[in-house]
Amino acid sequence: MVRQEMPTQPAAERVKNFNEVALGYTSEQAVTEAKRCLQCKKPRCMKGCPVEIDIPGFIAKIAKEDFLGAIKHIKQKNSLPAICGRVCPQETQCEQLCVLGKKSEPIAIGRLERFVADYEVQQGNIEIPKITSRLNKKVAVVGSGPSGLTVASDLAKLGYNVTVFEALHKSGGVLSYGIPEFRLPKSIVDREVEYIQKLGVEIRKNFVVGRLMTVDELLDDSYKAIYLANGAGLPKFLNIPGENLIGVYSANEFLTRVNLMKAYLFPDHDTPVKIGKRVAVFGGGNVAMDSARVAKRLGAEEVYIVYRRSKEEMPARKEESEHAEEEGIIFKFLTNPVEIIGDEEGKVAALKSIAMELGEPDESGRRRPIPIKDSEFVIEMDTVVVAIGQGANPLVGSTTKNLKISDRGYIIADEEEGQTSRKEIFAGGDIVTGAATVISAMGAGRKAAIGIDKYLKNRS
Amino acid sequence: MAYKIMEKEELSSDVKLLKVKAPLVAKKALAGQFIILRIDESGERIPLTMAQTDKEQGLVTIIFQEVGKTTNQLGALEIGDEILDFVGPLGKPTHVEHLGTVICVGGGIGVAPIYPIASAFHKKGSNLISIIGARTKKLLILEKEMKEISDQLYVTTDDGSYGFHGFVTEMLQKLIDDGLTIDMVMAIGPVPMMQAVCKLTKSYNLKTMVSLNPIMIDGTGMCGGCRVSVGGKTQFACVDGPEFDGHLVDFVELRKRQGTFRNQENKSTKKYDQECRLKSKL
Ligand SMILES: Cc1cc2nc3c(=O)[nH]c(=O)nc-3n(C[C@H](O)[C@H](O)[C@H](O)COP(=O)(O)OP(=O)(O)OC[C@H]3O[C@@H](n4cnc5c(N)ncnc54)[C@H](O)[C@@H]3O)c2cc1C
Ligand SMILES: Cc1cc2nc3c(=O)[nH]c(=O)nc-3n(C[C@H](O)[C@H](O)[C@H](O)COP(=O)(O)OP(=O)(O)OC[C@H]3O[C@@H](n4cnc5c(N)ncnc54)[C@H](O)[C@@H]3O)c2cc1C
Ligand code: SF4
Ligand code: FES
To answer: Within this chain, do residues B82 and B120 fall inside the same structural domain, yes or no?
Structure first.
């Protein structure tokens, strides 16, 4: 039996809207796919799952058409299944290890996870677990991205009073401001946030920790422990000439305008975005793919991905780069931008790049790109989006006393339980690891919840 | 939680003052810092300086000029109305110390953000000389307030309808020519004004700080939209500033970048005007 294809909006249509691209399995498809699972005694897939979901367990329930049972099973380990089912890089995690992948295609674990999560919502009755013990102890969480939401929900279930402090006017972190609507509908993020609030977690938005109150002030106030999950939200630039021209955005700015501020609905929403006919996106990761696909949907005629290595080295999820290709994004591999050329008004007019070739492997194990002499070339351009990665925002770390920070600005925390150089402060997610994945940020939150619980119980 | 408007005042035909209930922000605010607000669900996030704070009453005063959609909509709100989002304090506070003589120069709406900074220098016991200017008398704001805190106050109007006839820079030049010893100049106003002040003070090697107003979104260092070039280096005005050494700022770039969305802004303002007219007809 073959792996069930995911129904999607046709490329020609979807580039004209922001609706979700992948439409989700029907129940027939889900059951058919679930029945392919061999129910391995020693399931390899689970080794690839950072939060150790009982994969064959929930798939067995789908095969028996017990969809609500399946989602309950997943939720024991993962409180954000509708999100993970959509954005996890399953092809390098659970699905990569699935034994079926050796001979044919692995089970579509992510699609099944998404199916049951959506099924539960359509049923309407989302079960809120009863919280049996109330501990009357307050824990603060900084940041409402996947890591912060996970630690908050786990601690709430253990009976703690949890307050999440969020700088923006909306919860969700990158899920809200970064990942576009067509890949992760915001209604899904809102739903998960609501669920966590129903567990009793208080979310205080418009609260910039480090400015309104520092971590130390929160601890002095009444919080007994604090979890830092403020993400890696500092946009990097290439530092080439012309990066401050009109029409150059960081991916964070571009995506924030469109996703968080809904600039694609301008002028019904007040925040503008300007796009032009020709757009270059620097980078080869998910952020670059998202930016390129957003640009296309905003009406750009030609959208280029400019990436200095080759296709094989692109860190983006395969599904994303494939979708981008279907949508007509033009890939310029082995190309490195050297200068953005402006017109007399200070607007982007063209992009000068240099061709690259691959040399010896570098410390990341990927072959190092080397410029080819005298190979510079110029392409006309109106807009540039710089999506070459994010670094650590120093606002929280630098305003917290005696907190150990790495050379690159990330908070140093114990890998197992997230404890930092100060015993009452824990940290996890992108602010510890650097830009990574939704599921690893959640995994860190889960472990830290155990760590915080242990710490607070030992103390009292 | 929404943020309620407790007081409202019209300072001139297109400049309004609002006092907004935001106790925690008021408690923490320092001179030179700003807030970002969003009026409603479809609104834009815009930065405004805290012109004053009342820690006891928990009030933050904002003073703004109605230049486009959001500031016009804000100006149309009344006492009792609520603002959906109001986040602050943002930006680095002014480095306030006791200095011999400080000159605070405010042009146009820039008088609003210079007021709390001037107050802070005054409280530290510095000799505070203020120069405030406007295009014409009608547009002059906060004269009384500035007078109360300044050791000397000079008022200028471009058209000579009030005070000294000329630009703030001409007044500043006069003070320099009079041989006054000046320890620092602080200038806030439209970009061309700040640029002109810096050009003047640079030739006398007078330390000059300016407060920059690029387009912002988050105000936490996350988007980089607010980047400005200072001494050839890119800085994020919302977290590294908004105050910078004026002699190092690339004002030409700042001015261009402020105009990034001019077409869209005009469209948005027009649409808002039409909607208002329709409403008033009903
Ligand atoms: C465009 C884009 C696409 C991506 N696509 C994928 C994908 O397909 N699959 C995948 O697995 N991963 C993807 N990622 C990566 C993934 O989103 C992140 O690894 C993950 O969100 C990190 O979670 P976090 O909780 O650590 O931080 P974040 O999600 O960054 O959340 C941090 C939160 O903290 C808040 N905050 C920051 N500073 C403060 C402060 N001082 N006070 C209060 N709050 C503060 C921020 O506003 C934010 O809400 C993508 C990232 C981007 C940018
Ligand atoms: C740190 C800081 C402090 C400020 N303090 C004050 C103040 O105390 N009083 C005051 O009247 N104005 C202040 N401003 C300027 C104020 O933010 C803009 O006038 C306002 O955003 C205009 O919005 P609009 O929709 O009414 O006008 P629009 O028609 O949208 O824009 C008019 C002009 O305002 C600027 N602008 C537009 N959107 C933004 C934005 N999101 N962020 C910043 N600038 C923008 C642009 O240069 C634009 O050309 C400050 C700006 C900054 C950065
Ligand atoms: S490895 Fe593949 S076949 Fe085996 S249990 Fe996991 S999903 Fe099923
Ligand atoms: S406003 Fe986004 S980084 Fe300054």
So the answer is: no
